[in-house]
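Morning, I've got a small favour to ask if you have a moment. I'm working through a protein record and want to make sense of it properly. The fold is given in discrete form, as structure tokens running alongside the sequence. Can you walk me through what the tokens say about the fold? Thanks so much in advance, here it is:
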Amino acid sequence: MWPEHHVVAEDLERICAAPEVPWQSLHGRTVLVTGATGMIGSALTRALLWYSLTHDAGIRVLAVVRDVARAEQAFASPLAAAAPLTFVAGDVRSFPTPREPVDHVVHGASVTSSRDFVTRPVETIRTAVGGTERVLELARDKGTTSVAYLSSMEVYGSPDGSRRITESTFDTLDPMQVRSSYPESKRMAEALCAAYATEYGVPATVVRLAQTFGPGFALDDARVFVQFARSALEGRDIVLHTAGESEQCYLYTADAVTAVLTVLLAGEVGQAYNAGNETTYCSVRAMAELVASRLGPVPVEVRVDAGDAGTRGYAPTRKLPLDTSRLRALGWSPAVGLEDMYRRMVAAG
């Protein structure tokens, strides 16, 4: 999605004007992005290309994708023909090494479906661990200037909310629970980043993202926050498949992009950074109530039907009040709150 919609145009302009992002250091450089057709990867790729085109910055993007035809459709627009974008076809675990230099890497390729965490746990683990090793080996071979791995707040396990979650606050994970395929493999991928930084000098950093959404989601997407929006817009009750007691922060897509770029270009090698909007902290139930009362043409009800919750791959109940002070110390701050996240997602959908 290019800036045909005013919401997307506003987001691109704000990202490209973000004072915390040292854009000058990207001029004339090549950035490799894995997971480039995913939500964050595509938003990041568009921002890099938009900045390059509007600032004559000569930034080139290598987008690692599994399906080139799908990627060409996703990035199609009159502007795309002029954009310095090259697709690298292949699985993240085995994609071919580009011939050109690679100055920076953003590694965002990941299994993201909660249902897949319980129905395809082996693939979930292999994608995270094998893909991260492939990316780090590429960075090592190319002498890359910086690498940012996109991780998740799920690495913290299931804390009870009694303390703020800094980058060193971890709760237990049970590796024998099949859904742990996702957070455990994310932890292992982070450990690989730290290991490559220490042993081989690969300049890797980690961004632990809160649940992120914004423009770019189709309203038939299966993710919970999209289901909430779809129900409200259609005047149907929002149905929770758990009691909705988990509490966490959320993050708007454009804010996630500025967070990733800030860590990529200004973060400390071998460090992890929490990225979330602390003002959005609430329970799943409270978020559903907000959407039910304010998003649609008329208010709807929120009710619980937990009949098939076990097959959906939902995380256990957790309370994750993220502390983002380490990232804020680099000058970053989020700009869009929870209600506006929904309104902007729906407006541009």
Q: What stands out?
A: The mean pLDDT is 93. The two ends are 10 Å apart (CA to CA). The domain at 6-215+250-279+319-336 is CATH 3.40.50.720 (Rossmann fold). The first strand starts at residue 30 and ends at 34.
